[in-house]
Write a structure and sequence with these properties.
It contains seven helices and no strands. By secondary structure, it is mainly α. The chain has a domain of about 100 residues.
């Protein structure tokens, strides 16, 4: 008589374990999404003036008396590169070079550009010109803060938060994968019909019929 294969008997314990794993996975997925959402909100934070309506009256003169025997210290290319480091104060997020060459409705960036020209003609260096604009407008005059104190920490914080969130999510995904593999490995495997000590083929056939009737 040909031996009939036994079917594994489902148990309520396995179903409960599956539901528990599913609930854990859902909870951890929610935590991971919350971490990424927090990192995203930190990255999205920008000074309020970046999204404010254009403030045409935001210009304030940045003037210095020419140095004795003033000679320009910057070439035109160096001056343009310097303007990329000075933020237009009209309320946009652009530097004064980009703003004045792309948004022809802005009246602030051309006025700030004229101040740069006068300072260059007055013999001032790149750092002296940057310092002059900071003394007029504060640190918001710079497209990137000085690498010191809370200015630099605030500049790096959004990127650092995103990196931490990404690492945390990667670790969570790896942990979930390891737990899922461990749960699969812990499930009892079906017992082969051949080689059961003390069980005849007739006994197996009767057991199989009983299981079919129960099912």
């Amino acid at each position: 008589m040909t031996a009939v294969g036994l079917r594994p008997v489902p148990t309520s314990t396995g179903a409960t374990e599956g539901r528990t794993v599913t609930r854990r996975a859902a909870l951890r997925a929610t935590v991971g999404l919350a971490v990424m959402g927090l990192a995203g909100r930190l990255v999205a934070q920008e000074p309020a003036q970046n999204f404010a309506p254009m403030a045409q009256g935001a210009y304030r003169p940045t003037l210095r008396d020419p140095k004795p025997g003033a000679t320009p210290q910057l070439t035109d290319a160096q001056r343009d590169a310097l303007e990329h480091r000075i933020k237009c104060q009209c309320g946009c997020i652009l530097d004064i070079y980009t703003c004045r060459t792309t948004d022809f409705t802005c009246q602030v960036s051309p006025a700030m550009h004229r101040d740069v020209l006068r300072l260059v003609a007055g013999g001032y260096t790149e750092q002296e010109i940057l310092d002059a604009f900071v003394s007029t407008y504060g640190e918001v005059a710079l497209t990137a803060p000085k690498k010191e104190g809370f200015n630099w920490a605030g500049y790096l914080a959004p990127g650092a938060a995103m990196a931490v969130g990404a690492v945390a999510l990667t670790l969570l995904v790896r942990k979930w994968g390891a737990e899922a593999r461990a749960a699969r490995a812990a499930r009892p495997a079906a017992v082969p019909v051949e080689g059961l000590p003390g069980v005849s083929a007739d006994d197996l056939a009767r057991l199989d019929r009983a299981l079919r009737e129960e099912g």
